[in-house]
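Following up on my earlier message about flavin mononucleotide. Here are the inputs again, as you asked, copied directly from the submission form:
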Amino acid sequence: MNVSEATQRRASIRSFLADPVSDKQIRDLLEVASRAPSGGNVQPWKVYVINGDAMDRFRTFISSRSPGESEYPVYPPSLQEPYRTNRFELGEAMYEKLGIPREDKPARFAHLARNYEFFGAPAAFFCFIERNMGSAQWSDLGMFLQTFMLLAVEAGLDTCPQEAWANHWQAVQEFCGAPQEEMLFCGMAIGKRDESKPVNSLRSERMAVDEWATWL
Ligand SMILES: Cc1cc2nc3c(=O)[nH]c(=O)nc-3n(C[C@H](O)[C@H](O)[C@H](O)COP(=O)(O)O)c2cc1C
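Thanks, got it. Here's what our run produced:
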């Protein structure tokens, strides 16, 4: 599989098979993903892997906790166009695949809550960053995470990056034993996609290049 193929195949998977992923496979992927670039080679990512027994313990632990407010603003307070529409359309396309109409708020809420089960993924990690890091280092996390996601595809695995966990930061921080200097960015569900689930056939839209690229 080449990079283009991995990039085209990667998608945010929202229903996983229970097939286990080995710690070694995750370690190998993390090691290669750490070849991702970072400004000044700072490598600001902090990763806590949850797999096997730890996943069983985590599922029990998190089921007794409730999400609250994110520590960081996941979106600007008033998302402007065209970003607002992009976000809205993604939500509508996703709920259409799930067969959940707009007025069925309980079903939509129940789907959102599936975030906190990693959509059934057998393995996951949480990505933290030290609080005194700035936006440039946060962008380094993105490079690392996307590199991981592409390598996972190459290895026959799938992923879902999950900011939803930012709303559960206190519980996640506690379970991981992460020091207060570290701040949770997101979770990453890892496993194999359940091809039989329509939600995984969602092909999210992209704006045309000319809408965001300018040739001078
Ligand atoms: C940093 C980050 C956090 C995300 N958080 C969530 C999340 O909490 N729950 C979710 O279902 N999708 C989440 N997504 C997936 C996005 O909705 C998805 O990347 C976008 O719609 C594009 O679709 P694609 O990943 O399938 O190409 C996240 C993506 C990124 C990059």
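One observation from looking it over: The chain has seven helices and four strands. Hope that helps, and feel free to reply on this thread.
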